[in-house]
């Protein structure tokens, strides 16, 4: 007889299993121990909550040791303290999860699972992974690693959480993991990674977000910690499905129609889930339907969908700047810039009829194994969203990110020796863009903040 948990996991883990994940790898216990030193400040809680959020979407057996510190970071679900927030987050994402949770101080040896992760320095030695940060630099290491509590540490803490979730999945599959340092603001890694950081809030004017899927939710999950100013509109006509919960950081089981582990329905609109992250305006329509009734330009457009010819439609808007983020079938998180007349357009770079390599948060568990099926994992979409969040935080300064030759940055999360790969896509005659004269008329009729970039 099929049990509710079997039905839940069959639907929820459909794409995760296509990563060659087996019941053994998905049920292998994972221990997370949060030191009192990092639990006492917001950056430490950002790292812990994000890590549990990502782990619970893949791993079915978690042991969490954390103090009941006053809650300083934003929890996915209501909670009174950090320990309660970690537990409630895991259960909201997976009502059938096997969860053991304990508080600090640790008396005797903690329950350490085959995969063990420590956050901070006040944790046991001989764990598999330690995560820490210094301002904008996040890292995973083989020894306890400090994590500061300064306002600028949120970027490093978020980066470290993504790296640790990546490492845990690789360890569950018997794949090697090495120490890594990463700075998304500098786009540097390992010995070259410095501590430069970015601070919120994001202030880029009015923003149109097209798509409320995994990468979009990754972006908005981080932006609620950095802060957001201005008018934000999010457009998406899709409903949440259970398999979305394995990679979308804002989507819990209840929102896909499974409250308390019971299939009751109905599911929520993805756009309502995403918009709630930052109190944006939600538009539950497909972009081609919505745009037909809209005449107002936004300051910036984020093209985070690939269905129904969205990339082609966005390329013909006459915008000076378009930004988006993707993941690939080779364990990469990627940020894309499209400055008119300097870069190619989204439809030229990622044709709508060739989505396999850039489907939303998909790829094989072993990049070298081309026989693996496409699938989805939370840390890919989380890191892509974080890349885009950093770009938006840097935009007001007109940094090299928006004026230099590279217009596509690829971050390799198989954690090999090559981590960053900057790419240059030259401008070319584009069949999707409107003529220069028409673009000038559009921009003159409704001038917007970033028109002078082109």
**CATH topology assignment of the largest domain:** Rossmann fold
What class do helices, strands and sheet pairing give? alpha/beta
Number of helices: 14
- CATH level-1 class of the largest domain: Alpha Beta
CATH superfamily of the largest domain: NAD(P)-binding Rossmann-like Domain
Low-pLDDT runs = 354-363, 367-375
Largest sheet properties: 8 strands, mixed
The CA-CA distance between the termini, in Å, is 62 Å
Keywords:
454 residues; eight-stranded mixed sheet; Rossmann fold; alpha/beta; 14 helices
List the helices and strands and how they pair.
Layout: H1 4-12, H2 23-27, E1 30-34, H3 36-39, H4 42-56, E2 61-65, H5 82-93, E3 98-102, E4 115-119, E5 129-134, E6 137-141, H6 154-172, E7 180-183, E8 188-189, E9 207-210, H7 214-226, E10 232-235, H8 270-276, E11 281-283, H9 287-291, E12 300-303, H10 310-315, E13 321-327, E14 332-339, H11 346-349, H12 378-394, H13 400-403, E15 408-412, E16 420-423, H14 436-445
Parallel strand pairs: 1-2, 1-4, 2-3, 4-5, 9-10, 9-12, 10-11, 12-13
Antiparallel strand pairs: 5-6, 6-7, 7-8, 13-14, 14-15, 15-16
Helix pairs in contact: 4-5, 4-6, 6-12, 7-12
């Amino acid at each position: 007889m099929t049990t509710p948990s079997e039905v839940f996991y069959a639907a929820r883990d459909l794409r995760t299993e296509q990563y060659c994940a087996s019941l053994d790898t998905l049920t292998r216990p994972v221990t997370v121990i949060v030191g009192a030193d990092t639990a006492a400040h917001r950056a430490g809680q950002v790292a812990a909550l994000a890590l549990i959020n990502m782990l619970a979407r893949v791993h079915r057996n978690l042991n969490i040791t954390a103090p009941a510190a006053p809650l300083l970071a934003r929890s996915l679900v209501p909670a009174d303290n950090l320990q309660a927030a970690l537990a409630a987050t895991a259960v909201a994402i997976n009502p059938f999860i096997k969860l053991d949770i304990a508080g600090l101080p640790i008396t005797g040896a903690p329950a350490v699972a085959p995969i063990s992760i420590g956050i901070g320095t006040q944790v046991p030695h001989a764990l598999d992974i330690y995560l820490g940060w210094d301002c904008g630099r996040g890292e995973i290491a083989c020894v306890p690693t400090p994590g500061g509590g300064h306002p600028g540490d949120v970027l490093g803490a978020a980066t470290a959480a993504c790296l640790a979730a990546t490492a845990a999945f690789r360890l569950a599959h018997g794949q090697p993991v090495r120490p890594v340092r990463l700075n998304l603001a500098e786009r540097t890694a390992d010995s070259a990674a410095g501590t430069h950081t970015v601070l919120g809030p994001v202030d880029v004017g009015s923003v149109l977000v097209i798509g409320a899927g995994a990468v979009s939710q990754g972006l908005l999950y981080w932006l609620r910690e950095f802060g957001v100013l201005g008018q934000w509109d999010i457009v998406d006509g899709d409903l949440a499905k259970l398999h979305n919960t394995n990679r979308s950081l804002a989507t819990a089981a209840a929102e896909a129609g499974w409250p308390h582990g019971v299939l009751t329905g109905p599911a929520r609109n993805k756009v309502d889930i995403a918009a709630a992250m930052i109190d944006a305006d939600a538009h539950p329509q497909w972009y081609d339907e919505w745009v037909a009734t809209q005449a107002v330009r936004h300051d910036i457009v984020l093209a985070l969908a690939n269905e129904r010819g969205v990339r082609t439609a966005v390329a013909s808007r006459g915008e000076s700047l378009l930004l988006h983020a993707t993941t690939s079938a080779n364990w990469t998180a990627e940020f894309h810039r499209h400055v008119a007349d300097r870069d190619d357009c989204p439809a030229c770079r990622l044709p709508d009829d060739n989505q396999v390599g850039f489907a939303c948060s998909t790829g094989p568990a072993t990049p070298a194994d081309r026989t693996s099926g496409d699938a989805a994992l939370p840390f890919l979409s989380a890191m892509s969203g974080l890349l885009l969040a950093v770009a938006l935080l840097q935009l007001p300064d007109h940094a090299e990110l928006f004026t230099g030759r590279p217009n596509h940055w690829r971050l390799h999360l198989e954690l090999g020796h090559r981590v960053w790969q900057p790419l240059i896509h030259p401008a070319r005659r584009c069949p999707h863009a409107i003529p220069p004269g028409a673009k000038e008329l559009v921009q003159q009729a409704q001038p917007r903040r970033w028109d002078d970039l082109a």
